[in-house]
Design brief:
The complex is a heterodimer of chains A (217) and B (426).
Chain A lengths: L1 E5 L3 H13 L3 E5 L2 H7 L6 E5 L1 E2 L2 E2 H10 L6 E5 L4 H9 L4 E4 L4 H15 L6 E4 L2 E4 L4 E4 L2 E3 L3 H11 L8 H9 L9 H13 L4 E4 L3 E4 L2
Parallel strand pairs in A: 1-2, 1-3, 3-6, 6-7
Antiparallel strand pairs in A: 4-5, 8-9, 9-10, 10-11, 12-13
Helix pairs in contact in A: 6-7, 6-8
Chain B lengths: L6 H53 L21 E6 L5 E4 L16 E3 L5 E7 L6 E7 H50 L18 H49 L5 H24 L9 E4 H6 L7 E4 L4 E4 L1 H17 L4 E9 L2 E8 L6 H12 L8 H13 L3 E5 L6 E7 L2
Parallel strand pairs in B: 7-9
Antiparallel strand pairs in B: 1-2, 1-5, 3-4, 4-5, 6-8, 9-10, 10-12, 11-12
Helix pairs in contact in B: 1-2, 3-4, 4-6, 6-8
Classes of the chains: A alpha/beta (217), B alpha+beta (426).
Chain lengths: 217, 426
């Protein structure tokens, strides 16, 4: 998943970025709202937002995104643990709320949960015909048999699976899988998709020429 | 709890007392006044009756049988007035039908009121120039009856007026106390911490100072709480964020560091987790408005996740409690840390239902406490005097129990130490 982490504390921000990367996520870490604003034109799977930031309120920022029609799942990271704060946080348009200090493993599970809910699935696995994806275990099974995917290949499959039925443009998929390191002009994505088709089946990912890709249910 | 005196009852009792005293005093005064007036009126009537009778009798004096004792013939009838004609020797010559044979007055007196014994009130008038005297008398009982009747009616009226006044005043007192009751209700609903909340204006001049004092107190309280909350928020942020950073960095290190440092990293992570729980618990317990978020907790599951590798900790099967997991875990960790430091190798945790909740019974096999220590520590906990004697473990356990509507109990036991975290009903 590609995540936008908005946290001004350097030790926590670095720690979360590195931890989430060990979980296989692409993480863009910003310490200021204006830095995050500059990235908002790119697609993200989830936003992880600190409430109090040096240049404003993370809650107001999420409210602004929701007013503009943005629906990317958002999770508030905050030291505020009062009930009224939790209510206010969730009412601002955030999908979840986690109080510092938290276990990074719990944060990771919550990210998976909000992303799953956003894709319309309540359970931890997604099924597309004979293909079954275990999002928490990062496992792909075809007819019940596990198929090994590289981290990048998993990221491509996961990005498409979380947007099942929707067409994902090449540039968006590049951004989701490769983050700011991605280069739309390169053919790295095609190479990954080709490899995925070989492993999971030719018809798993449909290419709509000139528009993008989608996973076939 | 001691029953406090009621203003309403005290005023009512005072009013009833005053009314009775008023009734008695008025009756007494009226009795004296009426007696005097009635006597005067009846004496006047007696005198006038005597004068009329004198005129009638003297007009017919020649036809009266005045030679010896006798009575005028007349049919039997009730006489409120009787009369006698006595000679100079005070012997009865003639009398009315119901007048006695003996002289009405033992004292021979030619004119005026004679004697005042209880039986008769007598008025004498010289009847002729031979020393004969006309005595006219009223019975003492009829005079007493008249006095009593007047006094009774007056006293009854006075008492009635007094009681009516008492009832009326009591109603007025109740009415006048209503603004105090209304203010009590308003104060109970008054939350100075809620913006825009206003205590209704006092409806009596006497209540204005109290009203203003409460509003002032509320404003000061709100100011202090706002300041405390702001401090808590800053303190919470200053403590929680670095802790979260520490835990995140440790989590990364655990995943990336070589195998040989993993044990140290694991212990450091456990210590950070413990610190996280204690800090969360302390921030919740020492902050105004901090909520206890009760959830069903599987005790065995919670105990299994507590970081005490050198001590065997077991929990009663299927034991479940409703409590704030962070607070309860922090309390248990500190109590278990105490057990460890006092040489315990095994701890068993059970639950005990009470009339108003549940107690978690934490029993270890450590050095334990003497009965005197148990009593001393329990007394300190009961008085919430946490200075020195109790230590962080017991203090935190007690605060967590109190936050759940219960208390911490130190139970004397023959071996080891037994501490109960009693929680009130959820």
């Amino acid at each position: 998943m590609r995540l936008l982490l908005l946290e001004d504390d350097t030790i926590l921000g670095e720690g979360l970025r590195d931890f989430l990367r060990t979980e296989g996520h692409m993480v863009d870490w910003c310490q200021r709202l204006r830095e995050a604003d500059a990235l908002l034109s790119e697609p993200f799977d989830a936003l992880l937002v600190d409430w109090q930031l040096p240049d404003g309120s993370g809650l107001d920022w999420i409210e602004g995104i929701r007013r503009r029609g943005g629906s990317t799942p958002a999770l508030i990271l905050t030291a505020r643990d009062l009930l009224r704060d939790r209510i206010r946080g969730l009412d601002s348009g955030a999908d979840d709320y986690i109080v510092k200090p938290f276990d990074p493993e719990e944060l990771s599970a919550r990210i998976r949960a909000i992303r799953r809910r956003a894709s319309g699935s309540a359970g931890p696995t997604l099924k597309f015909g004979e293909l079954e994806l275990d999002l928490s275990g990062k496992r792909a099974l075809v007819r019940g048999v596990r198929v090994e995917l590289t981290a990048r290949e998993w990221s491509v499959v996961e990005a498409l699976a979380l947007r099942a039925g929707r067409l994902v443009s090449k540039s968006d998929l590049d951004a989701l899988v490769l983050g700011q390191e991605g280069d739309v002009s390169s053919n790295a994505l095609e190479v990954h998709i080709s490899s995925i088709r070989r492993k999971l089946g030719r018809d798993v990912i449909e290419t709509v020429r000139g528009l993008g890709y989608r996973i076939v249910a | 709890m001691t029953r406090l005196p009621s203003i309403r009852s005290r005023l009512s009792n005072t009013l009833i007392g005053i009314s009775i005293a008023w009734g008695v005093a008025v009756s007494l005064v009226v009795w004296l006044a009426v007696r005097h007036e009635v006597d005067e009126l009846m004496d006047s009537t007696l005198q006038q009756s005597a004068e009329i009778l004198f005129d009638l009798l003297s007009f017919n004096a020649e036809r009266l049988p005045l030679e010896g004792p006798g009575a005028l013939p007349a049919p039997m009838h009730g006489e409120q007035l009787v009369w006698q004609i006595v000679d100079a020797g005070n012997a009865v010559l003639l009398r009315s039908n119901r007048a006695p044979d003996r002289p009405l007055s033992a004292q021979y007196k030619k004119e005026g009121f004679v004697g005042a014994d209880d039986e008769w009130r007598v008025y004498g008038m010289p009847f002729d120039d031979r020393g004969r005297v006309l005595f006219v008398a009223q019975t003492g009982s009829s005079r007493t009856e008249a006095r009593l009747e007047a006094a009774e009616i007056t006293a009854a009226c006075a008492l009635l007026v007094g009681m009516l006044c008492a009832v009326w005043l009591r109603t007025r007192v109740s009415g006048e106390l209503e603004p105090i009751v209304a203010m009590s209700v308003a104060v109970a609903q008054f939350d100075p911490l809620q913006p825009g909340t206003k205590l209704p204006d006092a409806t009596r001049a006497e209540l204005v100072p109290m009203h203003d004092a409460i509003v002032d107190l509320g404003a000061r309280l709100a100011k202090r709480l706002a300041s405390e909350r702001a401090f808590s928020a800053h303190a919470a942020h200053a403590l929680r964020t670095p802790l979260a950073g520490m835990v995140a960095q440790l989590a990364v290190a655990q995943r990336t560091a070589p195998e040989e440092v993993q044990p140290q990293l694991k212990r450091t992570r456990e210590a950070a987790d413990r610190l996280r729980r204690v800090v969360s618990a302390l921030l919740t317990l020492f902050r105004s408005g901090g909520e206890v978020l009760r959830q069903p907790i599987d005790l065995a599951d919670m105990v299994a996740h507590l970081p005490f590798e050198t001590m065997s900790i077991t929990a009663q099967d299927a034991a479940r409690v409703r409590a704030d997991p962070d607070l309860l875990a922090a309390a248990l960790m500190n109590l278990l840390d105490n057990s460890l430091r006092h040489g315990a190798t095994r701890v068993h945790i059970t639950t005990r239902a009470t009339s108003d909740g549940v107690c978690l019974v934490v029993q270890d096999d450590g050095a334990g406490l003497t009965n005197e220590d148990c009593s001393r520590l329990q007394a300190a906990l009961d008085q919430q005097s946490y200075d020195g004697a109790t230590g962080l473990g017991l203090m935190l356990g007690d605060l967590v129990a109190r936050a759940h509507g219960g208390r911490l109990l130190i139970v004397p036991s023959e071996s080891g130490c037994t501490i109960e975290i009693c929680l009130g009903a959820a």
